[in-house]
Amino acid sequence: MFSEAVGGLAPLINNLGWTLLHFLWQGLAGALVFALLMQLLGKRSATARYTVGLTVFTATAFLPVVTFLTMETTTGPVGGITAVTITAAGAVVTDFWSRVPAMIEPLLPLAVGAWFSGVLMLSLRLAGDWRWVHHLRTTEVWELPEHCAAIVENLCTRLGLTKPVPTVVSAAVPCPTVIGWLRPMILIPASTLVGLTPQQLEMIITHEIAHIRRHDFVINLFQVCVETVLFYHPAVRWMSGQIRSEREHCCDDYVVASSYDATSYARALAELEQARSLPAQFAVAASGGSLVRRIHRLIDDCSSAGGSAVVATGLMIAALILIGLAVIPFDAPESHNVDNVKPIAI
Question: What is the pLDDT of residues 11-21, one digit of tens each?
Answer without folding.
Answer: 888 889 999 99
